[in-house]
Design brief:
7 helices, elongated, single chain, DNA Polymerase III, Chain A, domain 2, 27 strands, nine-stranded antiparallel beta sheet
């Protein structure tokens, strides 16, 4: 195999594939990245039993072929290559050489014939704007649990009904939901549960432009013009999150989400991690307080428009910040009683976050 390629293209393609490499591969070849050179195109693939990735980049192919190289080492080398000059990749049976200007690296090859065949993606279910989808995933992923003992809580649920796609996640203490538009390829409802951490990680490489989503009973696939990633689904039932985020809240505070988030961060500085933030809503403003006699106290004030009676309510600072940071602009905080959950929504209602309140003596 022999090819020439722009070093930035190589680095982007290899780095994106390397993110899908298993941390503890069951067999040695799964630590490798498969490089295939054909038809003026370099394809880089990674395989794990839960996630697979295939990316393409334009290249000048002098000799077609396929090799398997140590994935993480290759990614570090590719990222370090100088720019302004093309990199040449040549390979024999046991070694590959990367030459870029005066920099040269020699990497041992792995047995390419032992590398598994990547699964083919399912039939397309629809297409979504990449930027909007990435934002939606990041907005709900903060509500995923890190505790693997209950897989359902680690996942992101994707539902579709007509031209509306809905993403949801919960860790029992909050529920984050985001609606967005998409273009379905087939009629009928859709409901799939994906590993939240994996879905969040792959969105870093989806980029701009349309993303095709595809599903079957075992796999979800995310396809762009240069990348294709498959993720194994979580086989779990999911809660009726729609009913839970459809509260009738008689008290609604309208706030500037970034401004209130900044105030929460300032007040939380005085207290311990995961501290409780107390919010006292009155007409025109909300008073934020945290801390106590043994660790010190902090307070701040933010503007708000209040509809309904005055109320004092408390939240864990992290949960409150996750909800506010997902909203760029005005937010509505809907409340019923001090010891009941609050519904934090974007002004257009596309993002909703039901967050448990904390009892404060």
């Amino acid at each position: 195999m022999k090819l020439t390629i722009d070093p930035k293209l190589l680095a982007d393609t290899v780095t994106a594939a390397a993110r899908s490499l298993p941390q503890r591969p069951l067999i040695p070849v799964l630590s490798g990245l498969l490089l295939e050179a054909t038809d003026d195109q370099l394809t880089v693939s990674a395989f794990d039993y839960d996630i697979t990735h295939r990316g393409r980049a334009a290249a000048d192919i002098a000799e077609p072929g396929r090799i398997l190289l140590p994935g993480r080492v290759l990614a570090e080398v590719a990222k370090s290559l100088p720019t302004g000059v093309f990199v040449e990749v040549t390979a024999t049976g046991t070694e590959a050489t990367l030459t870029c200007g005066r920099a040269e690296f020699e990497l041992p090859t792995l047995p390419v014939d032992d590398f598994p065949t990547l699964p083919e993606p399912p039939d397309p279910a629809g297409t979504v704007d990449g930027d909007v989808f990435v934002t939606a995933v990041h907005q709900v992923a903060t509500a995923c649990s890190a505790d693997d003992t209950l897989p359902m809580l680690t996942g992101i649920r994707i539902d579709a009904d007509g031209d509306t796609l809905t993403l949801a996640a919960t860790d029992k203490y909050r529920i984050a939901v985001r609606d967005l538009s998409w273009q379905p390829a087939t009629a009928g409802a859709l409901g799939k549960l994906l590993p939240g951490r994996m879905l969040h990680d792959i969105t870093r490489d989806l980029g701009r432009g349309p993303v095709t989503l595809a599903f079957d009973d075992q796999l979800a696939a995310f396809i762009t013009d240069i990348r294709r990633t498959t993720i194994r689904l979580i086989d779990e039932q999911y809660i009726d999150y729609r009913a839970r985020v459809s509260l009738d809240t008689p008290i609604i505070a309208r706030v500037d989400a970034p401004a209130l988030a900044d105030a929460v961060k300032r007040v939380a500085l005085i207290a311990e991690r995961n501290t409780t933030i107390r919010l006292s809503f009155t007409a025109g403003e909300v008073l934020l307080q945290a801390g106590g006699a043994d660790i010190g106290r902090g307070s701040d004030v933010a503007a708000c428009e209040l509809n309904g009676g005055d109320i004092e309510i408390a939240f864990q600072s992290k949960y409150l910040l996750d909800a506010l940071n997902a909203i760029d602009g005005q937010a509505h905080i809907g409340m019923t009683e001090p010891h009941q959950p609050a519904l934090i929504t974007s002004e257009d209602g596309a993002y909703r976050n039901l967050t448990m309140s904390v009892r404060v003596a």
